[in-house]
Design brief:
Protein name: LLM class F420-dependent oxidoreductase
InterPro entries: Lucif-like_OxRdtase_Rv2161c, Luciferase-like_dom, Luciferase-like_sf, SsuD_RutA_monooxygenase
Distance between the termini: 11 Å
Largest sheet: 8 strands, parallel, barrel
Keywords: Flavoprotein, FMN, Monooxygenase, Oxidoreductase
Structural class: alpha/beta
Helix content: 25-40%
GO molecular function, one term: uracil oxygenase activity
Organism: Mycobacterium talmoniae
């Protein structure tokens, strides 16, 4: 099982140093969250908390995850980065293809594209995109971005996007993996059909086990059971080595964690405290050898 450190809602000026430390102590990747803006009044509930409330406010720091990946990639050599997840629905696929291809090239193909639709109507409408039919539009967006990133002269004529022959150079030297987020049945089908992996929001171990089983069944239905596939998980109730063993046994391939939160620190904890937490977590889980005992 891989280990990814999430840097959600932390001070932006800590990101580069956290990436260097995460690589030094043995983490596999950094997960980068996405939020365009904070609307004072939200038209929809946040779907990943029990009461629909947002876990952040108007002063919570966010950085564009693609820009962050490029900055953190410049000071590392083995650490991977992926968006967790970038909200496609309010954006333009050609512009995103240019950005994703740039990050992939600048990081030496150490970038994975975690994608979702987006939950807030305001993010669509205020960016000039209709909220209606967002799922179908995102399906077409994924198709467009993959097509362009594959390289060469391409064209596309779909329901939502239409363009004649064009090319973006250089294309990434390797395919950019797409990790699809979401907990609904339609999101799981999207992940099984077009994704190189699935990424969760906060879930219990039991929920993860059930969801992974469903995804494997869907992958079989789509004829993709034998293809590589990542299960990236944020688990809220499996802790300690035994808990991590349970996650691995359930099929989790990438455990997304925030070590300083486990140590009772907040998102805005001092940088040195966060570095200590990264080292302590790595000693306990990454270098302890528990996986060799499986």
């Amino acid at each position: 099982m891989k280990y990814t450190c999430s840097v959600a809602m932390g001070p932006i000026d800590q990101l580069v140093d956290l990436a260097k430390t995460a690589e030094e102590v043995g983490f596999d990747a950094i997960a980068l969250p996405d939020s365009l803006f904070y609307m004072e009044k939200a038209a929809a509930d946040y779907p990943y908390t029990p009461d629909g409330s947002r876990m952040w406010d108007e002063n919570t720091p966010w950085v564009d995850p693609l820009i962050a990946a490029a900055a953190m990639g410049a000071v590392t050599s083995t650490l991977r980065f992926y968006t967790n997840v970038l909200k496609l629905g309010s954006r333009n696929p050609l512009l995103l293809a240019r950005q994703v291809g740039s990050v992939a090239n600048l990081t030496g193909d150490r970038f994975g594209f975690g994608v979702g639709i987006g939950w807030a109507p305001e993010e669509f409408e205020w960016c000039g995109v209709p909220y209606a039919r967002r799922g179908a539009r995102v399906d077409e967006m994924i198709e467009v971005i993959k097509l362009v990133l594959a390289g060469g002269m391409v064209e596309f004529h779909g329901e939502f996007f239409d363009f004649d022959r064009l090319q973006m150079s250089p294309a990434p030297s390797r395919p950019v993996p797409f990790y699809v987020g979401g907990h609904t049945e339609v999101a799981l089908k999207r992940a099984a059909r077009v994704g190189d992996g699935w990424t969760s929001a906060m879930m219990t171990g039991e929920q993860l086990s059930q969801t992974i089983a469903r995804l494997n069944a869907l992958r079989t239905e789509f004829g993709r059971a034998n293809e590589p596939f990542e299960f990236q998980a944020v688990c809220i109730d499996k802790f300690g080595v035994d808990g991590h063993r349970e996650l691995a046994a359930a099929g989790v391939t990438d455990n997304i964690v925030i070590p300083w939160m486990f140590d009772g620190l907040g998102f805005d904890a001092p940088l040195d405290k966060k570095k200590d937490s990264l080292k302590r977590f790595a000693d306990t889980y990454i270098h302890s050898g528990w996986q060799d005992q499986q």
